[in-house]
Amino acid sequence: MVQLDERLGAMAELVLEAVAGCESPCAADIGCDHGQLTAHLLERSGRLLMIASDVSAPSLDKARRLLADRGLAGRAQVVCADGLAGIDRPVQAIVIAGMGAETILRILREGREKTGGAALILQANVDLPLLRCGLAEMGFAVEREVFSHAAGRRYVTMLAQAGGARTLSEREALLGTAIGGMEDEEQRAYFAWQRSIRVREMEQTAALCSDKARARRAVSSRELEWMAEAMNVNACTVKELERIVGEIAPYELAEDWDNVGLLVGRADKTVTRVLTALDLTDDLIKEAKALGAQAIVTHHPIMMDARRRMTDADREGRLLLALAENGIAHIAAHTNFDSAPGGVNDTLLAQMGAKNVRGEGCVRVGDVEAGTTFGALCARAQRRLHAAVRAYGAADTPVVRLGCCSGAGGSLFPEAAALGADCFITGEIKHHVALEAMDAGVCVIEAGHFETENPACEVMANALQNACDALKYNVTVFCSKGNPFGR
């Protein structure tokens, strides 16, 4: 039997349900492409006849060959036609998939008389709210939606029937059948994926102050709220967010001199949006306000030294005032995140392509692929970390093991060397320490404090989002794309 991926499989099941019990069942596969869905359906139901149409002659040739090879050509009418023009008999099901919502709606409007009482099995690649509204305007009601994923994308397959339609609100158009709540994990996964799309859109426009950008953020923000309501999530507090950060980067791993955990804010305040970043800055607080975030999680903490007053006379005082005035909590995960499994230094070595990573504390060592040179690793750091690299060593020096300590970690190269590293990447290294490293046979890549640590902010954002999703908290996590140094 022709095997289908999950997306096509969902369509097949809906077609078979629609034709069940019919004496002479017939279905139409519009835009049949390679003909796999048509062939699969014919093999599943020995009484079924299929109309397979497409506007592409080459695609139809593939479909004809597949049907002929599997002995199914006698039960399939393969026709080159646009939309529903190829349907010349009553059908119980019509499949239209792999197209945009506008194209699907055009096909249905132009061939409305051909639909009869057939079940419509529809799968649009984009603009599902538009499809739902357009179906309602034509008198079709969406009775069921099946959620699936294939090739890294998530899909909704709709089953619609004529009759029972009504005008949809914006919220109903966005959520579809999820308006009554999420029924299964695939459905929740689909909306989590949709949420990530809106998060990326909002991150990209967070620093823009134009009316268009603000309007777009407002729409995405409203849609995030609607999706959260449908997902039946629970409220999360600043205290609970601090606890989750501590599970990702255990606070006991922090150095004694460090300042981690909740630094500013009310522990009992509700949090629905969080922004992660490397450093707390004026621009970051403005970005948090634009995104509607009530909490900021950074790698670098503030108040590393004791303060006697909080005024706008200095940078840190202004930041503290801005946080308090805007009701934004601040949590820091610094040396604890440096040392945590999957944290800053594991992320740095992953960015550099090292394998079999080992080490403890802030130092890691991993193996690089055979034949790697120091020059090649420098070029990789420049490309992947977007760094202006300073190289200490000969470009043609072979490298077997790469060690790291992100940020101002140059002085820790001996610990990496003890683990077998013959190359060491860090953010900052003093001149005399670099000389000591080369004397010990260790090449050094100095790639910048910001550049070696910033990739972990996305890791923290993803870990926070995954943890909040697992706990079913109403929390959306953003990651700042800004560079405080303007690079």
Could you walk me through the main structural features you see in this protein, from its secondary elements to its overall organization?
This protein has 487 residues and is an alpha/beta fold. Helix 1 packs across helix 2. The protein is globular. It starts with 5 loop residues before the first helix and ends in an 8-residue tail after the last strand.
> What fraction strand?
15-25%
Q: Round the Cα radius of gyration to an integer and report it.
A: 29 Å
Biggest sheet architecture: 7 strands, mixed
Task: Give the mean pLDDT.
Answer: 95
Overview in brief:
This protein has about 475 residues and is α/β, with parallel strands linked by helices.
Describe the secondary structure blueprint for this structure.
Blueprint lengths: L5 H14 L6 E5 L5 H9 L4 E6 L2 H13 L6 E5 L12 E7 L1 H10 L1 H4 L3 E6 L3 H10 L2 E11 L2 E10 L7 H6 L9 H21 L5 H20 L5 E2 H11 L12 E4 L5 E2 L1 E5 L4 H10 L3 E4 L16 H12 L2 E4 L2 H5 L4 H8 L3 E4 L5 E4 L6 H11 L5 E3 L8 E5 L7 H6 L4 E4 L4 H9 L3 E4 L2 H5 L1 H16 L5 E4 L8
From the structure above, extract its key features.
487 residues; alpha/beta; seven-stranded mixed β-sheet; six-stranded mixed β-sheet; 19 helices; 41% helix
